[in-house]
Each structure stands twice: as C-alpha cells, then as structure tokens.
Amino acid sequence: MSSIISCDIIDTITSPTNTVAAASLIRTSANNILPFTSRRLSFNMKIVVTGAAGFLGSRLADELLSASSPLCPSELLLVDSLAPAPRADPRVRTLALDLSASGAAESLVAADTAALFHLAAVVSGQAEEDFDLGLRVNFDATRALLEAARRRAPGLVFVFVSTCGVYGGELPPVVDERTAPAPETSYGMAKAAAELLVADYSRRGFVDGRSVRLPTVTVRGGAPNAAVTSFASGVVREPLRGLRSSLPVPAERELWVTAPGTVVRNLVRTAQVPGAALGGRRVLNLPGLRVSVRDMVAALRALAGEAVAARVVYEPNETIDRMVATFPIQFDNSMALRLGFEVNASFTDIVKEYINEIGNH
Ligand SMILES: NC(=O)c1ccc[n+]([C@@H]2O[C@H](COP(=O)([O-])OP(=O)(O)OC[C@H]3O[C@@H](n4cnc5c(N)ncnc54)[C@H](O)[C@@H]3O)[C@@H](O)[C@H]2O)c1
Q1: How many domains is the chain built from?
Q2: Alpha-carbon span 11 to 314, nearest angstrom
Q3: How many angstroms is it from 263 CA to the middle of ligand 1?
Q4: Which residues lie with the beta carbon below 6 Å from any ligand 1 atom?
Q5: Is 201 annotated as catalytic?
Q6: Residue 324 lies in a domain
Q7: For residue 11, what are the domain limits?
C-alpha cells in the first residue's frame, strides 16, 4: 500500500466496519504514516478555526483544506469577528462572531467536534493599549472556549496559539519549555494565564490541550498590524512595494522569527502529536531563527538590491524597543525538532518565500 493516503481514499475506507483500521492512520507532511495520536482525531472530523479572517488563521484554513493536508476535515468551521473569506469548498462554514460575547463559545463546539485551533486574539500593541479588551479576548474568551469544549466535546484536541512574548524578565542565555514565563506585557500575561488553563483542563481530562508559542512570524503581507513586532514584516514588505519602512528598533536588536508557511504546517502538526509528548505543561516553543535587524536588511539587499534596502530608515521608538527587548532571542527547540516540527534554514529563505508569494499574486 502506498504511504500516502488521500482524503478521497480515506472517505472510501471509513465505513463502519473499517473505521478502526482507517483511524489508525494519519498522513503526515513527510508523507509517512503516523500512528493515530488522539482518540478524537479520526477521519470525517469536524474542525474549528478561530481567528480565521486573520493572517495565520486564513492560511491555516487553506492548509487544512489542501490536498496535502495530513488532517482531512469533513467540516471546517471558520470563525472570526470579521467575516472570514468564503471558500469554494462544501466542507467550509464561515461565521462572523465576537468570541467575547456571552454564549459565543458554546455555539462553536458540537459533540462531534474533533479539534479546535484557537488563534483569535488581540495582538500585542493593541492589548497593551487597551488592557480590558486584551484580557477579555485573550484570556476570558479562551476560558469560555475551553469550558464549552469540556461541556460539549470532552477530550477535544484544543490547540491554543500562544507566543514567545510570555517570556520576559531575567532569562537564561537559552530558553526552553522549562523556562518559567514572566511576561512584561499584558498580551504576554493573558497568553501565559491561558496556557495554564489549557494545561489544567488537560490534566483533568476535560480537553486534550496543547499550547504552542510562536516566534515572530514574518513576512506578513497586507497592511501593518498593531503588533509591536510589526516592523519585522514591514522591513521587507514596504521596501519591496517601493515604500519607505521605518524601523523603531536599533540595527543590533535581534528577534526570533519564523515564516508563515512554516508556522502553519507546524500548527497542523501540533494537533497530530500526542498531547502527553508535551509534558504536564502541555506547551511547546515552535522552532525559529535568531536574526538581527541588520541581517534582515542585509538579506533584503542581497535579494532585491541596494535601492530597495535603502528604503529602510532607522527611527528608534523607546516604548516599542523596550517591549521588543524583553522577548527572548535564543531557544533550545530540541523537543519540537524531535517531534518533527519544521524550521526555516535562513532569513534569506524567508524573504525568498515572500518574494515568490507576491510574485504569484
Ligand atoms: N503573527 C505573529 O507574529 C504571531 C506571533 C506570536 C503569536 N501569534 C498568535 O497567533 C495568532 C494569530 O495571529 P495573527 O498574526 O494571525 O493575528 P491577526 O490579528 O491577523 O488575527 C487575529 C484574528 O483574531 C480576530 N479576533 C480578534 N478579536 C476577536 C474576537 N473578540 N472574536 C473573534 N475574533 C477575534 C481578529 O479579527 C483577527 O482576524 C494570535 O493568537 C497571536 O497572538 C502571532
């Protein structure tokens, strides 16, 4: 038998008599067959993605619907306070919903929901500006979703998308999953608090939860967002569009970054690994690359030329730089790499991925 099972083949083998055999196989991105990892992840599964109108949520939806996706949703519910883009795929339902509204969480989870990817969030800069909004969306809505899963679909695979911004304070030279979070932003605080909920709901068997901390994701297309690390995308995106890019941090400031394509495949992988492999904390730091702003500009110069790189202007902003400087820049990602998560080879590769992407649109 081929090592690749397509969604079509899966549909034909999931008859009541051979469900067990089918459910023991899940296609991986490396086209290997992995042992079935969760009693809820099976074929014909219903999956929910929150934040599905956002940068990563909409890409995750596309990845889950793609022919190469290792998970094959029979129904994909895309939810966001802004209406998610419709897709020409009969498996997709879209819903515009404020997750912080009373009763919103319950309306998303059904008894046969197998997995929920929770990406909806108020990003760092906005959560710092508006404490109440940040707490309501980043913590209260996460708690409501966990509670809805506990009541309506116990054991559901709950992928909580967190951030390396949970770290701060005095850090060891190399950070790993055992390093205690000490957030110095309200965004990081709410994410860290939600991670604790995910771990305890999992320990009690209410959900099969996993929190993944994302590096800064770059290059983000479209308009700048309200994240304090927004410049990490602007430094490449705006000059390539012929626009000036203002850098609020000095050239030597370093960041821990990953590319959108890589992170989205890693999010899918997060749902596949056995929750117990992440230990009692149920957290994983997704792999990234350490890069200075100077080296980001150098990669842009090497690929697009001096005239493009010259559009980057250093205009340090103390408030932004102070927050960015609290984010760790060196991780030990051995747990993630052991579990088969991907990492980009270089920042040049990340810029190339973006140039290819804009070239294809
Ligand atoms: N992009 C990054 O660099 C990065 C880094 C670390 C962590 N993350 C995390 O990844 C996730 C996705 O990030 P992104 O870059 O796609 O952000 P994004 O801002 O593009 O998407 C977030 C989405 O959440 C939605 N949302 C906000 N409040 C909502 C509410 N009350 N109800 C329903 N939907 C609501 C927004 O409309 C938006 O579409 C977030 O949880 C973020 O904290 C992102």
Answers
A1: 1
A2: 55
A3: 14
A4: 51, 53-57, 80-82, 98-100, 119-123, 137, 141, 161, 163, 214, 216-217, 225
A5: no
A6: no
A7: 7-216+258-288
Give the CATH number, domain containing residue 152. 3.40.50.720
Tell me how far apart the alpha carbons of residues 280 and 183 are, in angstroms, rounded to a whole number: 20
Question: Residue 25 domain-assigned?
Answer: yes
> In this structure, is residue 342 part of a structural domain?
no
Strand partners, 291: 255
What is the Å distance from ligand 1's center to 306 Cα?
34
Residue linked to tokens 């459910």: 23
Q: Is residue 235 in a domain? A: no
Tens of each residue's pLDDT in the chain, 361 residues: 232 333 444 433 333 333 322 333 343 333 343 443 455 666 668 999 999 999 999 999 999 999 988 888 999 999 999 999 999 999 999 999 999 999 999 999 999 999 999 999 998 889 999 999 999 999 999 999 999 999 999 999 999 999 999 999 899 999 999 999 999 999 999 999 999 999 999 999 999 999 999 999 999 998 888 788 999 999 999 999 999 999 999 999 999 999 999 999 999 999 999 999 999 999 999 999 999 999 999 999 999 999 999 999 999 999 999 888 888 999 999 999 999 999 999 999 999 999 999 886 6
